[in-house]
Amino acid sequence: MDKNNLELAIQLRHELHEHPELSYEEIWTREYLKEFIRKHTSLKIVDKGRWFYAVYEAGNDNPGIAFRAEFDALPIDDICDLPYASKIPGKGHKCGHDGHSASLAGLALELEKYGADRNIYLLFQHAEETGQGAIECAPLIAENNIEEIYAFHNTSGYPKHTVAVKKGTMHCASKGMTITMEGKSAHAGMPETGINPSFAIASIINVIPELIRPENSKGMVLCTIIQVDIGELAFGTAAGHGKLRLTIRGQYEDEMNKLQHDLEEISLKEAEKWGLKCSFDYQDAFPETVNHSESVDKVIDACKTLNLPVINMEEPRRTSEDFGHLLKLTKGAMFRISYGENLPPLHDAEYDFDDDLIEEAVEIFKELIKS
């Protein structure tokens, strides 16, 4: 990577880090990224409102290739002692999306300097943390006849500079599920005159271990209790309403959906048994991220060319990625580049993206363009 381009990309990363914005609030971030590309390249920018993409036009009919980076931050304080620390209390780039976007902008700089022989689309995406951004960007694929799309995520747990790949499910599907039970409050001295949802919710909780027994599924299925909220803090009142909040997760989306169906059926039966009204709400829904085999092979070949070590992951990441929406529409893959072992993990207040990963990501992208 050109030295000046790398320095510009690192500087951009630090500027993004100073100004973190949460999902659907990324106004400054989006405009700053667009201005950076306008200032330093001649790539065409297509503004889609909440998101945008930049296009390198090769002037031929070669198949189009796309690369994606996210630019939203998290509601986590930045406690790192850095000259470019977050200037916004309670918000920080604690998942590395500042580094992902800086890397993609770095690729734009390299395309400006060295060119390429195919049309290239650089997708800068909003709202990844909520699982909603990628599906809003999905029209990019069909509208531009894109035949493959790639993205990377920084990660820990492997030696630094190691690239982790996996064919098939790379990231699990997940969904936030809220089960609401409405009954009738009563005096605590006369609970029989009310309808208390506590027993129904307790029954649902008790059956969860049976629903996620490993031998009952072909892949990992998980149900995590996030919150139990029943009644009011008043010792004279028996509870009349309650909410059970869960995160359901699966290596395979169909098995996660079956878990959802089973939880709904059990909840409705318990509601009927106790005379309660039952309803369901869902949020932060992520698809499974399924890497295409031939695309993973291209990533591996790129790493071999660059002498970067590769690890084939045996199990998918339990964390979720909305990039899976795009991989449902075209070939492609997500890969992970490690910033080292025994370091603060993602979503930790002490975490900071490692600038050394920018050049590695850009060089892998460049090799994928050639493939």
TrEMBL record:
Binding site residues for Mn(2+): 95, 97, 129, 153, 347
Any one GO MF annotation of this record: metal ion binding
The keyword Transport is annotated on this UniProt entry: no
Domain Peptidase M20 dimerisation: start-end pairs: 171-273
A matching Pfam family: Peptidase_M20
Comment on bound cofactor: The Mn(2+) ion enhances activity.
Cofactor: Mn(2+)
UniProt KW keywords: Manganese, Metal-binding
Membrane-spanning residues: none
Protein name as catalogued: Amidohydrolase
Organism: Paratissierella segnis
Lineage of producing organism: Bacteria, Bacillati, Bacillota, Tissierellia, Tissierellales
